[in-house]
Amino acid sequence: MTFTCRNQSCQAQWEQADVIIKNEGQGLLFRCPMCGARNYVERFEADDGTVVYEQIEGRPMT
Ligand SMILES: [Zn+2]
C-alpha cells in the first residue's frame, strides 16, 4: 500500500511507514514530507486487528 501526494505539482509516493498519520480535527490525514500538503486517509481494521489506511479523495465528510 502506497500513498500518492494529492498535490498536483508534487505527487510524491510514500509508504505508510514514511508518513505520520494523525487527526487534526477534520479526520485522519498525513502531511506530505516533501511539500506539506494534507492528504486524507481512512482507517480500516481487519478481523485480525491489523490496521490499514487507505487514501481518500479530498477530505472526509464530517
Ligand atoms: Zn507532496
TrEMBL record:
Designated name of the protein: Uncharacterized protein
Highest taxon above the source species: Bacteria
